[in-house]
Amino acid sequence: AQRVTQPEKLLSVFKGAPVELKCNYSYSGSPELFWYVQYSRQRLQLLLRHISRESIKGFTADLNKGETSFHLKKPFAQEEDSAMYYCALSGQMGRRALTFGSGTRLQVQP
Amino acid sequence: DSGVTQTPKHLITATGQRVTLRCSPRSGDLSVYWYQQSLDQGLQFLIQYYNGEERAKGNILERFSAQQFPDLHSELNLSSLELGDSALYFCASSVGDVSYEQYFGPGTRLTVT
After folding, report:
1. What is the pLDDT of residues A3-13, one digit of tens each?
2. Phi then psi for B71, rounded to 5 degrees?
3. A43 and B107: CB-CB below 8 Å?
4. Given CA atoms B73, B109, B4, B97 in this order, what sign does their dihedral have?
5. Among all residues of chain A, which has the CA nearest to that of B54?
6. Which of chain A's residues have a Cβ under 8 Å away from the Cβ of B4?
7. How many CB atoms lie within 10 A of CB B10?
8. Residues of B with CB below 8 A from A102's CB?
9. Considering CB atoms only, which of A94, A100, A103 is closest to B98?
10. Do B33 and A97 touch (CB under 8 A)?
C-alpha cells in the first residue's frame, strides 16, 4: 500500500523566514510525487511535481528516495503563501489515482 | 468557466436517502476522478473514468457508484446514506488516462443528518 505522511497540521512563520513543509511517503515502487496547494476560497491546484524539477512561486521540492521524503521549501516566505498544502503520490492503479497526505496549513504572519 | 464544474455546491439530506453529484470536466479533458474529503480520512480517491470507461477504483463503498456519459460529464451516486458519508466530494479532470496533472473542481459539500 502507498501512504503519504505530512506530520505538521499547522506551520506558522513570519514573512521573510524560510519555510519547509515536510512530506514522507511509503511506496514499494518508483513514485511520482506532487505538491498541491489550496488558497483560501479557491480550488485545489497543482503547485509542482518532482519530475519537472522546477521552481514555482519560489517553492522547490527534492525527492529523496533514501529518506522517502519530498519536502517543500521556500527560502523567504510571503504572506500570499498562506494556504493549505497537500503532498500527493501517484503510484498504484497504473498511476491513475493520487494518494494525498493530510495537509499542512501554512500561516505566514506579517 | 472552462474549468471543472460541480453541482450542487451544498447538499443536505437525511440518512437512508440517495443523492447524485454532478461533475463537468474541463473542455478537452477525457478523464474524470472522484475524491472524498472527510475530517477523519482526509482526501481519498474513489474512482476514475476515462472516455466513458472505468479505469481505476479506490476505496469506494458498494453503496456508491459513478458513471461518465458520452458528453464526458460524470455523476457520482451515493445511496443508503449514513452520517459518516458527510464530506466534501471533489471531482478532478485530466487530459489523458494516466495524467500527472489533475484539475480540481470546487467540490460538493454533502451533509447527512
Report:
1. 999 999 999 99
2. -85, 5
3. yes
4. negative
5. A96
6. 43
7. 9
8. 42
9. A94
10. yes
pLDDT grade, residue A104 (50/70/90)?
A: very high
> Shortest CB distance from A96 goes to which of B98, B103, B107?
B98
Contact assessment for residue B80 and residue A14, using Cβ atoms and an 8 Å cutoff: no
Alpha-helical runs (H) found in chain A: 92-95
- Contact pairs from chain A to chain B, CB under 8 Å: 55
In this predicted model, what pLDDT tens digit does every residue of B46-59 receive, in sequence order?
999 999 999 999 98
Partners of A5 on chain B (C-beta within 8 Å) are none
DSSP-assigned letters across all residues of chain A: --EEE---SEEEEETTS-EEE--EEE-SS--EEEEEEE-TTS--EEEEETTTT--BTTBEE--BTTTTB--EEESS--GGG-EEEEEEEE-HHHHTSEEE---EEEEEE-
A23 contacts in B (CB within 8 Å)? none
Interface test with A, best of B100, B101, B108, B109 (most A CBs within 10 A): B100
Cell output for B57:
477504483
Tell me the per-residue pLDDT of A3-39, one tens digit each, with 9 for 90 and over: 999 999 999 999 999 999 999 999 888 888 999 999 9
| Amino acid A16: pLDDT | 97
pLDDT, averaged across chain A: 91
* Separation of first and last alpha carbons in chain B: 32
Q: Which residue has the cell 472527510?
A: B38
